[in-house]
Amino acid sequence: MRKAVLVTGGAGYIGSHTCLALIREGWRPVVMDTFANSSPEAISRLRSLTGSDIPVCQVDIRDTEACRQVMSQYHCQSVIHFAGLKAVGESQAHALEYYDVNVNGTHSLLKAMTCEGVRHIIFSSSATVYGEPTKLPISEDHPLDPTNPYGRTKLTAEKLIEDVASSSADICFGILRYFNPVGADQSGKIGEDPKGQPNNLMPFIAQVAVGRREYLTVYGDDYSTKDGTGVRDYIHVSDLAIAHLRALEKLVGFDENFVVNLGTGRGYSVLEVLDAFSSVSGRSIPHRFNERRVGDVATVYADPTLARNLLGWKAELGLKEMCRDHWLWQEANPLGYDGEH
Ligand code: NAD
Ligand code: UFG
């Protein structure tokens, strides 16, 4: 019997790619999602890609009783917890909602796990918990000082998980701090489908390339970087998905808690990403320079050594593959899953 894993937020961008990787390696994902920021169509696509009948429960993670019921009904033995709100700007305007979903939601899930005897949780955290870099590359012992409410909800959820694990509750955790996930599965069937105007660089570029938006605004050309634009550590979402499998195996196999960065260790500037995308898509991508975006920093990239040593994982795909696969998805699905944005 395949082992059942509860995947909260499994219909979302990273969650759907991780479900695909789980099924390919013989696990049985059980998706729990409200579809607040995703579409049931993502699950239909996953079903047709894998020929697997993925159970889906439209349940809010803040509903502890419903979480318990799902865990019990499907005999879930572990949890990968993606569900949450993730827009930095929105987190400033809607801090209460962000703390409710990201912190109370995680609390509710931990409570349900404890009641149902589900012991292992992998948590989606973010490089945003580090805040402004004081040294590069960023290793896991870098000071934690998030600069926005979203980042603080992620850090609070991390601490909550750690405190619960070191209490009498029988819980083990793997906390994964993602750098900048981009790209899509090579099938072109699933991908990132932001609601409204994208906040992040790659989906914005893709929408300009496909003709949905007129031009990209490049935020700042006066950073002290190679070409004056911001530098980030972009990581292919399929590499990221595989990292979740290695993390799950490690956690279930060894009952050892860990916190690891997931990045490539290499930074690219906005203009380098723009050039790479333009070259793989064959489309010109008009852009205009503007002021720096409030809260942005010049350069962020990971030290990925711990992930390699602890999980035996490293990112395999480079910027060209990230752009190629993001474009494959965007070109085949110019209006996203539901075609009505
Ligand atoms: P996403 O929005 O595509 O996926 C999140 C999913 O959670 C969505 O399907 C949404 O409908 C669901 N959801 C939201 N609130 C819920 C609730 N109360 N109950 C149940 N489901 C709910 O986001 P993503 O990019 O796939 O990110 C997944 C996780 O990774 C998030 O926790 C995010 O904070 C974290 N993360 C993302 C990035 C990134 O750049 N994409 C970077 C670092 C960390
Ligand atoms: N950028 C532009 N124009 C845009 C969007 C972005 O020039 O329209 C620039 C930004 O200024 C930055 C770079 O592209 O220099 C990357 O920006 P993103 O918004 O794609 O990514 P961030 O690094 O700002 O933040 C992302 C997520 C956060 C997460 C962080 C670290 O949005 O939630 O990565 O994982 F915390």
Q: What is shown here, in short?
A:
With 341 residues, the chain is an alpha/beta fold. Helices cover 40% and strands 16% of the residues.
General description of the model:
With 341 residues, the chain is of the alpha/beta class. It is 40% helix and 16% strand. It has a seven-stranded parallel sheet with strand order 3-2-1-4-5-6-11, sandwiched between helices. It has a two-stranded parallel ribbon with strand order 7-10. A two-stranded parallel ribbon has the order 8-13. Helix 2 links the parallel strand 2 and strand 3 (56-57). Helix 1 packs parallel to helix 2 (40-50), helix 7 runs parallel beside helix 9 and helix 9 crosses helix 11. The longest helix is centred in the first third of the chain and has 22 residues, at 95-116. The radius of gyration is 19 Å and the shape is globular. It binds nicotinamide-adenine-dinucleotide and uridine-5'-diphosphate-4-deoxy-4-fluoro-alpha-D-galactose.
